[in-house]
Design goal:
The complex is a heterodimer of chains A (330) and B (234). Chain A has 330 residues and is mainly alpha-helical. A two-stranded parallel sheet of chain A has the order 1-2. In chain A, strands 3-4 form a two-stranded antiparallel sheet. In chain A, helix 1 packs parallel to helix 5, helix 1 packs antiparallel against helix 10 and helix 5 packs antiparallel against helix 10. By secondary structure, chain B is an alpha/beta fold. Chain B has one domain: P-loop containing nucleotide triphosphate hydrolases (Rossmann fold). Helix content of chain B is 35%, strand content 26%. Chain B is built from nine helices and ten strands. In chain B, the strands form two sheets. Chain B has a six-stranded mixed beta sheet with strand order 6-7-8-3-9-10, sandwiched between helices. Chain B has a four-stranded antiparallel beta sheet with strand order 2-1-4-5, covered by helices on one side. In chain B, strand 7, helix 6 and strand 8 form a beta-alpha-beta unit. The longest helix of chain B is centred in the last third of the chain and has 16 residues. The two termini of chain B are 34 Å apart. The chains are: A mainly alpha (330), B alpha/beta (234). At the A-B interface, helix 6 and helix 7 of A face helix 2 and helix 3 of B. The structure holds adenosine-5'-diphosphate (ADP) and magnesium ion (MG). The site of magnesium ion has 3 residues of chain B, from helix 1.
């Protein structure tokens, strides 16, 4: 790790000549767009942390790996073997290819989530949280190596969804691309869906109960291991969704998610590591702040400013913007 | 209904139960008495499957349950209201009660079950939407018992329901425990307050450092000199 490609700002950076509102607007829109991706990542991190107290430091690499799996499935459907160096997929794909590839990838992600919980983390349940976190770092590193080996390290283009790449909507002089809108709506739909899930379904309520008191949760007859597996599966499916949506905007390579992952951790902590609405808010805020900083501040400060703001917020609100103090473990 | 034979359980290498045998006949209230650290809570945890039984057997209606998982045990009809209440503080009272019925498949009876709970604990009814963490100690205890009843248990394990409550509330809780028992639920009641427990118990066991040192009917134990001396403060 420690590999932070700075491709995120490439779309906008070129013409900083003084201040104008249109540029500011564009930066904010672009910030929303990336922020939505951070939010999807952060939602997964919160989901895992809520159920099992673990922070998944392999989240970025997992999302990267899922993007490759998605590409392989697209290739499979089109009869192209993407592990060959010269393999090329069309730059735009219709739903009939994208959707099955997405579903296949989601299935893969869910199985991987269940497997990680069952075979790597559950045996460590009695060990410290730190050893479990180490395992997530290990998985991330392994996936990074595996991806470099299977699909080579050279960056490659990722197909866009045809329906989402049409002409942008014009808001006066501001262009709002269909892609931006898709990111934002997916993030909002997922956050609201999860909110409803945790609020109104028995399984969702049980997941919250586990986070508050795993001992009492077992007395209710809740199968804690199985539900933690479910939380992992859901979180990794979110990562797969975010990965496949973001891949065209980034560029497919083993290190593609390193930067996104760091910002998503920041987003989760900023919003409150146990708050889903916090993850959404934190993701969007980091996206916007980061884009503005990238545009208006000198290069050296760009990478740090978002983190300075986080540190400042956390000194005032230690549990994050919408987080609650973590319950004491019994 | 419940028959425990020569049960041993460990925390790491430390033996907390050193061969406990006891019996809970159907329809009774059986009191489990003993000083702090005697192993009462450990015994309930082992029955619930939270702690493995190292040796010995637990039989429930003739079926061995000493290797069963906690959710299997709840499904068989054994429910456990733990020491210190352990309600889910960030869930509402309603959510806590629903969690109590987590293993139930016939959710349509939820309303009838809730009515039953409110019959025993009317104080909970106006607080359904409140977070459990904001309840008073007495209300949390009622919620913990109510939550345990939501699985429609045949055997209820109660761990120190009087802990930390004022005398009036304690009396109320004990009246309710009698009511619950009268409605057909067998009760294994752990108490430090031996006087109150023996007042409602059919039978009692006294535990000392992981062993049963005395057992008799409730009435006899109330007259027992040793009990009077150690637990009834005479
Ligand atoms: N989680 C634990 N880890 C290690 N030892 C424990 C644990 N819980 C209880 N013990 C020990 O087991 C013994 C029995 O405790 P417990 O069952 O809680 O007693 P009681 O409920 O009768 O007060 C005590 O010596 C206690 O220190
Ligand atoms: Mg105890």
């Amino acid at each position: 790790m420690g590999y932070f490609p700075m491709v995120l700002h490439s779309t906008l950076n070129a013409t900083a000549e003084g201040f104008d509102w249109i540029t500011l607007g564009r930066n904010i829109i672009n910030g929303f767009s990336f922020g939505s991706i951070y939010a999807l990542f952060a939602l997964g991190l919160v989901l895992i942390h809520k159920s099992s107290d673990v922070v998944n430091f392999g989240h970025g690499e997992m999302a990267m790996f899922f993007s490759y799996i998605g590409l392989s499935l697209m290739g499979l459907l089109l009869g192209v073997n993407i592990s060959k160096p010269a393999a090329e997929l069309p730059s735009q794909l219709g739903w009939e290819v994208f959707l099955p590839a997405l579903l296949g990838t989601l299935l893969f992600a869910a199985l991987m989530g269940l497997g990680i919980e069952r075979f790597l983390l559950r045996p460590l349940a009695k060990a410290s949280v730190l050893s479990q976190v180490m395992v997530t770092i290990g998985i991330g590193t392994l996936l990074y190596g595996l991806a470099s080996w299977l699909w080579k390290a050279e960056p490659r283009a990722y197909p866009r969804i045809e329906a989402v790449s049409g002409p942008p909507f014009q808001l006066g002089e501001l262009a709002l691309t269909r892609e931006d809108l898709t990111f934002l709506s997916v993030a909002i739909v997922m956050a609201s869906g999860l909110f409803l899930f945790f609020r109104y379904t028995m399984v969702g309520i049980a997941l919250r109960a586990i986070a508050q008191n795993p001992f009492a949760a077992r007395l209710m007859g809740i199968n804690v291991g199985r539900l933690n597996g479910l939380a992992w599966a859901m979180a990794l499916m979110l990562a797969a969704l975010a990965g496949m949506l973001a891949a065209p905007k980034l560029q497919l390579e083993p290190g593609m998610m390193a930067d996104v992952a760091v910002k998503s951790f920041a987003a989760a902590v900023l919003g409150g590591i146990n708050s889903l609405s916090g993850a959404l808010l934190g993701g969007l805020l980091i996206g916007i702040i980061d884009n503005l900083a990238g545009f208006y501040l000198p290069d050296g400060l760009r990478a740090t400013i978002a983190f300075l703001i986080i540190v400042a917020v956390l000194t005032i609100k230690p549990h994050g913007l919408l987080g609650k103090p973590l319950p004491k473990k019994v | 209904m419940l028959r425990i034979d020569n049960l041993q359980a460990y925390y790491g290498r430390i033996a907390a139960l050193k061969g406990v045998s006891l019996e809970v006949p159907e329809g009774t209230i059986v009191a489990l008495l003993g000083a702090n650290g005697a192993g009462k809570t450990t015994l309930l945890r082992t029955i619930s499957g939270l702690l493995p039984a190292a040796q010995g057997t637990i039989e429930y209606n003739g079926q061995r349950i000493d290797q069963a998982t906690p959710d299997q045990i709840v499904r068989l009809g054994i429910s456990h209201s733990p020491e210190g209440r352990q309600v889910f503080p960030e869930c509402t009272v309603m959510e806590n009660l629903k969690l109590g019925s987590y293993i139930r498949r016939d959710k349509q009876n939820l309303k009838g079950d809730l009515d039953q709970i409110f019959h025993h604990f009317p104080a909970l009814k106006p607080r359904l939407r409140q977070l459990a963490g904001t309840l008073s100690g007495g209300e949390q205890q009622m919620l913990a018992i109510g939550r345990a009843l939501m699985s429609r248990p045949k055997l209820l394990l109660l761990d120190e329901p009087s802990l930390g409550l004022g005398p009036l509330l304690v009396k109320e809780i004990f009246t309710i425990i009698k009511e619950i028992n009268a409605s057909g639920v067998t009760v294994l009641l752990v108490e430090q307050n031996a006087y109150l427990a023996l007042n409602i118990a059919t039978y009692g066991y006294v535990l000392e450092t992981g062993k049963v040192v005395l057992h008799d009917t409730g009435a006899n134990l109330r007259q027992n000199e040793e009990i009077k001396h150690s637990y009834l403060g005479h």
